[in-house]
Write a structure and sequence with these properties.
- It is a single chain.
- Strand 4 and strand 5 form a beta hairpin.
- The strands form four sheets. A five-stranded mixed beta sheet has the order 7-6-8-9-12, with no helix packed on it. A three-stranded mixed beta sheet has the order 1-10-11, with no helix packed on it.
- The protein has no helices and twelve strands.
- It has one domain: Tumour Suppressor Smad4, CATH 2.60.200.
- By secondary structure, it is mainly beta.
Length: about 100
């Protein structure tokens, strides 16, 4: 089994009154068959290990499989393990913008 991550374009909210923080990015990770997770500043860690934010019991998922984090351009997924991940149907071996 591979972990598949589906994404939609992130919503951005421009705030012109705040020169320090001109763009606020909102990202929600929708896990099929489970609850949605808001992606905060530290990201969302996916894997088999019990300290992950989203824990998968499938042995083909790495202990620390992937990290979904916010960037200046929106959100990206960072593969962390050796097991494959798919992002919108395409294999990802490097960080990939969602």
């Amino acid at each position: 089994m591979s972990v598949t991550i589906h994404s939609a374009a992130p919503r951005t909210e421009r705030r012109y009154h705040d020169p320090v923080d001109p763009v606020r990015v909102h990202c929600v990770l929708d896990v099929r068959g489970g609850p949605s997770r808001r992606v905060g500043p530290s990201g969302v860690l996916i894997g088999r290990q019990s300290d992950c934010d989203i824990v998968a019991s499938d042995p083909s998922v790495s202990r620390r499989h992937a990290l979904v984090r916010l960037t200046g351009d929106g959100a990206e997924v960072v593969p962390l393990g050796r097991s494959p991940i798919d992002v919108n149907g395409a294999p990802a071996t490097r960080p990939r913008t969602l």
